[in-house]
Write a structure and sequence with these properties.
The chain is α+β, with helices and mostly antiparallel strands. The chain is built from 1 helix and 9 strands. It has one domain: AOC barrel-like (Beta Barrel), CATH 2.40.480.10. The chain has an 8-stranded antiparallel beta barrel with strand order 1-3-4-5-6-7-8-9. β3 and β4 form a beta hairpin. It binds 2-acetamido-2-deoxy-beta-D-glucopyranose (NAG) (4 copies). This is Dirigent protein.
């Protein structure tokens, strides 16, 4: 009798310990901060000397355009706090995208938001995803981050809010929502 009681007690204590151990990750997860921000990308894709968005590779015999499957672009856009070019610098949007659907609609993107501002200097947010590039709102995932944004997950939206066809200059509004420690 005595022994049996002790076993149930031991079981209760042991399962109690397990519950504590296994509940820790979930609790820690809830403690992540949420950061929302809106920033603006300045994109020059004319092909001229100050271009920040250029095709670097495509299929032989095909035009290297943003509607041609297989065209790979590299980007290094200025990122600012407000939509004006003269607004406070946040950092750079650097990375690549490739036209990844046969019909030329979808672009697969891999960008780092590289911060150089006071708040997040040296930190990065990694943006990954695939979206119809002609949709008014393109959504991608925040796959990870570094520095202030270690273990980040979340999502971003891209919206073209200004386009000057004659100079191929566009302003993109980028909303970031990320959870991180
Ligand atoms: C961030 O944005 C999301 C979606 O709009 C919202 O639900 C959340 O409350 C915001 N978080 C903060 C800390 O502002
Ligand atoms: C490129 O940038 C330089 C320096 O800002 C500027 O002087 C020049 O006019 C620009 N060229 C074009 C084609 O936009
Ligand atoms: C960001 O860090 C770099 C390298 O440590 C430093 O040179 C630069 O002044 C810093 N910028 C800001 C805005 O703090
Ligand atoms: C992005 O954020 C701005 C506010 O900063 C808001 O007006 C806009 O609707 C947001 N865009 C999307 C697609 O959520």
């Amino acid at each position: 009798m005595e022994t049996k009681t002790n076993f149930s007690l031991v079981f209760l204590v042991v399962s109690g310990i397990f519950m504590v151990i296994f509940s820790v990750p979930a609790k820690a997860d809830d403690e992540r901060k949420e950061t929302n921000m809106t920033v603006y990308f300045h994109d020059y894709s004319s092909g001229g000397p100050n271009s920040t968005d250029l095709p670097v590779l495509g299929f032989p015999g095909k035009l290297w355009t943003f509607t041609q499957f297989g065209t790979l672009y590299v980007v290094d856009d200025l990122v600012t706090e407000g939509p004006e070019l003269t607004s406070e610098t946040v950092g750079r949007g650097q990375g690549t995208y490739v036209i990844a659907s046969l019909d030329g609609l979808n672009a697969y993107v891999s960008f780092s938001l590289v911060f150089t501002n006071v708040a997040y200097n040296g930190s990065t947010i990694q943006i990954l995803g695939n979206s119809d590039q002609f949709k008014a709102v393109r959504e991608y995932s925040v796959a990870s981050g570094t520095g202030e944004f270690r273990y980040a997950t979340g999502y971003v939206t891209f919206e073209t809010i200004f386009l000057d066809q004659s100079t191929s200059y566009s302003i993109l509004r980028v909303n970031v929502s990320a959870r991180h420690y």
